[in-house]
Amino acid sequence: MAVKCLKCNRDAVIFQRYSGMHLCREHFTADLEGRAKKTIRQHKWVSPGDRIAVAMSGGKDSSAVLYFLKKVFGERRDMEIFGVTIDEGIKGYRDPSSVCGIAEKYGAKCYVASFSERFGVTLDDIVKKKGDKNSCSYCGVLRRQILNSFARELGATKIAMGFNLDDEAQSVLMNVLRGDSERLLRKQSPAEGMVPRIKPFMYIPEREVALYASLYVEGYDERGCPYSYNALRADVRELLNDYNYRHPSAKYSLVNLGEDLKEGLKDDNTKISRCSFCGEPVFGECHTCRVLREIKK
Ligand code: SF4
């Protein structure tokens, strides 16, 4: 016999180990969307007049965030939700037209920028020249820059990221394991040229975002990047999932720790300046120009 929803006795679609609740489709949806709305309210992430660019990878998380934001804010005349996607130039991964097809299906416009047109090089070129050991470091630096500058050019006031609870907990643990106190304590206020980022699903576990996407979103692609095996994140994910199985609130604890460490710090403890070469806002050295010099040498 099917397990029943704790709230209404319909068939359950999920069991939340951390809350002890079995939930049906309707109560699971209300629970997830309610928590995402609460996260947005608590962080004061959305204001009238916002133009929100959703950073789309074509996977479940960012596709689900776009669907959720369109559902909640899509009827507002004073706001716009649209998709942006970055083509890194990785063969067999991320077809920009399919990614944009998801956004368009839910009534959002979608825009594409690429490493090759902006930097004159693809990630495959970089791997060919430098090997694949540091592919994610190069990719991360270039992608962050292009996402910010592209969203800014499109007039975005916010960039919505698809990060879920697992991603956020992994990031905190990675910073701890790297001994990177600067990142752990980085608290950034709005700065000219930097489009603020919002993360509506930061308290929603990955498996719940996956279920939400499978219930409501069509056309997303779960093929991973061929270079993802190099990421430290993959090791941390495995370690954390194993630990979390025995301690189901561990991921929440890590994310809360990351937030608490920033509580009480000065509003903006980062020193943002402009790169004298590319003109983009930077913290200290311009990593994009350093990476481009290194790979074009
Ligand atoms: Fe870039 Fe690494 Fe992500 Fe692939 S896995 S898209 S190389 S950051």
Q: Can you walk me through this structure?
A:
By secondary structure, the protein is α/β, with parallel strands linked by helices. The protein has two domains: 1-42, no CATH class; 45-266, Rossmann fold (3-Layer(aba) Sandwich). Helices cover 48% and strands 12% of the residues. The protein is built from twelve helices and nine strands. The protein has helices at 25-43, 60-73, 96-105, 115-119, 123-130, 135-153, 165-178, 181-184, 206-216, 232-246, 250-262, 287-296; strands at residues 14-16, 21-23, 51-55, 80-87, 110-114, 158-160, 197-198, 272-274, 281-283. Strands 5-4-3-6-7 form a five-stranded parallel β-sheet, with helices on both faces. Strands 1-2 form a two-stranded antiparallel ribbon. Strand 1 and strand 2 form a beta hairpin. The mean pLDDT is 92. The site of iron/sulfur cluster has 10 residues, from helix 6. Iron/sulfur cluster binds at residues 88, 123, 135-136, 139-140, 225, 227-228, 231.
Q: So what's the overall shape?
A: globular
The appropriate CATH architecture of the largest domain is: 3-Layer(aba) Sandwich
CATH hierarchy class name of the largest domain: Alpha Beta
Intertermini distance: 65 Å
**Major sheet attributes:** 5 strands, parallel
Total count of domains: 2
Q: Segments where pLDDT lies below 50 for 5+ residues? A: none
Radius of gyration: 20 Å
Q: Tell me the CATH superfamily of the largest domain.
A: HUPs
* Strand order across the largest sheet: 5-4-3-6-7
Q: What is the count of helical runs?
A: 12
- List the secondary-structure elements in sequence, H or E: EEHEHEHEHHHEHHEHHHEEH
| Helix share, percent | 40-55%
Instruction: Give the strand content.
Output: 5-15%
